[in-house]
Write a structure and sequence with these properties.
The chain is an alpha/beta fold and about 300 residues long. The protein folds into 3 domains: about 5-55, no CATH class; about 65-200, Pyruvate Kinase, Chain: A, domain 1 (3-Layer(aba) Sandwich); about 210-300, no CATH class. It contains 10 helices and 10 strands. It has helices at about 20-25, 35-50, 65-85, 100-105, 125-135, 170-175, 215-235, 245-250, 255-275, 290-300, and strands spanning about 5-10, 30-35, 90-95, 115-120, 140, 180, 210, 235-240, 240, 280-285. The strands form 4 sheets. It has a 4-stranded parallel beta sheet with strand order 5-4-3-6, with helices on one face. Strands 1-2 form a two-stranded parallel ribbon. Strand 4, helix 5 and strand 5 (about 140) form a beta-alpha-beta unit. The longest helix has 22 residues, at about 65-85.
Amino acid sequence: MRCRVFAAKDIATDEAHEFSRLAESFGAKLLLCDNLAEAETRSILHASSSRSAFKLPLGFNHADFRSHLKTQLAVQWTEICRSLGSAPSRVWIPVGSGTLLHTFRSLLAPTIEILGIGVNVLPEKDLRICSIRKLPNTSYATCPEAFETPARLPPPIPSNAFYDAKLWSWIEKSARPGDLVVARAKQPLQGNYQLRLAQNISWPIADTLVWLDPSLLIVLRRFFLRSFLRSIRGDLLWGHSKKTLRNNIFSKNSLLMWILSTHKKRTASYLKLLENPPAGVAVFRLRSEKQVSEFFRQLPR
């Protein structure tokens, strides 16, 4: 079976995400797109042009996938309940297509409340979003940031800045001790990774933790270079919205304002988290390209 992956570029590198490369290593043909909207459009056109092609729906919202996902979530849920000593009474879930939330709702007891926070992958009137509002003991709200805008509030755990990190502005206002937060970080979090107010953050099981912490000057230099290039090219952000200097630099909610207003706070937050790493975990804080190159040079081959 041949597989084509229409993948959006990693916004941090403007290249293929490592998970896209992983799919490519398994034999998939990788076709890079500037954004998710373009990937969706191109995949639909490709599937409609060939009788032998089948397009997997956004969020893998397919019966076979949901069945396998439910099986694996059941295993993890059992482990979470065993680790905590009881089942959480409330679960926070970021919502893109709604597949994950619907699967959790079919798995969890009706008495467990699910709080879904939409990250603006789909419009509010989309049927997949509307169906969430009809689920029992399930509430739904939408984060203020556009999907392509990173979270304004840096979370205290490893998170995807454009996805589950956006839960935290809601969590800090409305969560209760003992709530469970579903994070979609690149590395799995294990154990009791609840809220800051619970004063308990679990780290992934690892022997090395590397913090890439470039100076604000380096961040701004890369930001301006990338912004000017994307503005000149007229890169699409989402749907028909194009990258412009106005929305990326001069607007009140621009990425530039987010960088300037959160860089110091995020650095202080990570410094505090790294004060007491788990026993046996080596911590490396790399602040320049030279330090990064030297770190990789010393790794065993």
